[in-house]
Q: What sequence folds into this?
């Protein structure tokens, strides 16, 4: 089965909220020894992004987002162990990366996709979840000796917590030892510069490229 066909099936499974088909696509991709990262990026992720766009246009609603995310996760959960094996084989341990959605924000889909892709790239990812108190994020970074911590904010009202987090990292003596990455729909490079974050990333592909470079550089 061609890679393109697998990607299209994965995308369609998410767009039609079909968790069983998402699982079937994932299993077929493994069986066919396909590019699993491609299935995630160009299939499942492309599907969820399209549903997100429809949500922004008020053409679908929160239950649709949740159903689409459920389908995506059903497929990704099957692929993830195989991605982990690939990462270990490559021997590209890049260190621990703490990631979460910032305090006050309950969105998680984009952050979860970033976590998956960072794991594929070679990071030991610690996904704290969503709506995580700022002190708990800093604590996790310190206790795990993280090389980087990424926070996602999907609302302008929660972006301010990314600024507050930078101050906490300074007080805890973690700035300069642990890189900070910020992302999320309303977040920009200008905002990252303004608050003193080390890296701004626009999406899952961007975060991997920039963070691998930052850690190795």
A:
């Amino acid at each position: 089965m061609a890679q393109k066909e697998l990607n299209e099936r994965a995308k369609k499974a998410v767009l039609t909220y079909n968790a069983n088909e998402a699982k079937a696509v994932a299993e077929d991709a493994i069986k066919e020894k396909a590019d699993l990262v491609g299935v995630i990026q160009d299939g499942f992720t492309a599907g969820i992004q399209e549903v997100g766009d429809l949500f922004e246009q008020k053409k679908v609603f929160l239950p649709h987002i949740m159903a689409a995310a459920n389908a995506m996760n059903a497929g990704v959960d099957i692929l993830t162990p195989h991605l982990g094996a690939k990462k270990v084989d490559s021997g590209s341990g890049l260190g621990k990366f703490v990631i979460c959605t910032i305090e006050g924000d309950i969105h998680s889909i984009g952050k979860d996709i970033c976590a998956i892709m960072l794991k594929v790239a070679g990071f030991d990812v610690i996904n704290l979840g969503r709506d995580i108190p700022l002190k708990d994020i800093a604590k996790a970074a310190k206790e795990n000796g993280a090389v980087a911590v990424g926070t996602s904010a999907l609302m302008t009202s929660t972006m301010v917590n990314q600024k507050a987090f930078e101050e906490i990292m300074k007080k805890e003596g973690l700035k300069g030892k642990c890189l900070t990455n910020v992302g999320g729909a309303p977040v920009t490079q200008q905002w990252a510069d303004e608050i003193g974050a080390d890296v701004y990333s626009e999406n899952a592909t961007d975060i991997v490229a920039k963070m691998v470079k930052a850690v190795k550089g």
Observations:
- The longest helix spans residues 62-90.
- Residues 14 and 48 are 6 Å apart (CA to CA).
- The chain has nine helices and five strands.
- The two ends are 39 Å apart (CA to CA).
